[in-house]
Amino acid sequence: MAKTIIVGGFGPGIATAVAERFGTAGFAVALVGRNAERLAGGVKALETKGITAAAFVADLGDPAAVKTLIGKVREKLGAISVLHWNAYSSAAGDLLSADVAAVHSALDVAVTGLLTAVQESLADLKQAKGAILVTNGGLLFDDPNINDVSAKRGLMGLALGNAAKHKLVGMLAAKLKPDDVYVGEVIVTGTIKGSAFDTGHGNLDGSVVAQKFWDLYSARSEIVAKA
User: Fold this and answer.
1) What mean pLDDT do residues 141-156 have?
2) In terms of Cα–Cα distance, which of 94, 133, 100 is closest to 9?
3) For residue 102, pLDDT beyond 70
4) In the predicted model, what is the mean pLDDT of residues 23-36?
5) Are 20 and 200 within 8 A, CB to CB?
6) Is 29 in contact with 46 (CB distance < 8 Å)?
7) How far is residue 217's CA from residue 175's CA, in Å, rounded to a whole number?
8) 213-223 confidence digits (pLDDT tens)
9) At what angle do helices 113-128 and 63-77 cross, to 10 degrees?
10) What is the pTM of this model?
11) Per mean pLDDT, which range of 52-66, 158-172, 190-204 is the poorest?
12) Residues 95, 147: contact at Cβ < 8 Å?
């Protein structure tokens, strides 16, 4: 049976590598993001590798848009077997000066959008005994040094979203285990080469993270891996 993976939060680095890794394994790939030009380029690159792909423009922090997105993917590519959440928000960098909308934005992408996508695709995921794969970052850890970096570098909203997302992953894994829906997370502690965070000193290839996701998906035993 054909399988479809949604790659939410598409861009260079991890999302591109995940799309290629799962695509070469026979998955149709739905690329999702806000930049139509980038999405079109991603689809073209995948198609040159013989991978079936389609682009979907959506704001993954908007629950209504996420609900519409899931329906469009299902209509275009078929039932959803894997949901990969690579989206993040850098809003509310300074929590003491951020307004309510900015704080909501940080959490909407990390938690509300992800949860909406899970709810809307859940019937498909249960039928396929599929998987939810989540990208996260090392700012989630409650460590004094990490908290200091988050505060000084204007990454407080991102860190808060990461921590909440990590907790959500754990709860979803427990809740969905009886339904044979696997939930896994890769926590990235390095800097992905070519990503928005790479200032020329990236030390980790997106393909390494993609392989971590593939290994988690294939083994379906551990919930968390680090890269």
Assistant:
1) 97
2) 133
3) yes
4) 98
5) no
6) yes
7) 17
8) 999 999 999 99
9) 30
10) 0.96
11) 190-204
12) no
Place of tokens 């890794």: 21
Please check the confidence at residue 107 and state whether its pLDDT lies above 90: yes
Task: Please give the torsion angle defined by the CA atoms of residues 182, 185, 186 and 187, in that order, rounded to the nearest 10 degrees.
Answer: -160
Task: Give percent above pLDDT 70 in the chain.
Answer: 99
Question: For the purposes of burial, counting CB atoms within 10 Å of the CB of 100, is it exposed (0-12), middle (13-18) or buried (19 or more)?
Answer: exposed
In the block, tokens 């680090």 appear at: 226
Q: Which whole-number Å values give the CA distances from 139 to 69, 116, 184, 204, in the listed order? A: 29, 23, 18, 17
Q: Which residues contact 47 (CB under 8 A, 6 or more apart)?
A: 53
Counting every residue written for the chain, the total comes to 227
Token output for 52? 């079936």
Q: What is the pLDDT, as a whole number, of residue 198?
A: 66
Cα 220 to Cα 33, 169, 180: the distances in Å are 27, 14, 9
Q: In what order do the strands lie in the sheet with 131-137?
A: 53-57, 27-33, 3-8, 82-85, 131-137, 182-188, 224-226
User: DSSP characters for 123-191?
Assistant: HHHHHHT-EEEEEEEGGGS--HHHHHHHHHTT-HHHHHHHHHHHHHHHHHHHHHGGGT-EEEEEEE-S-
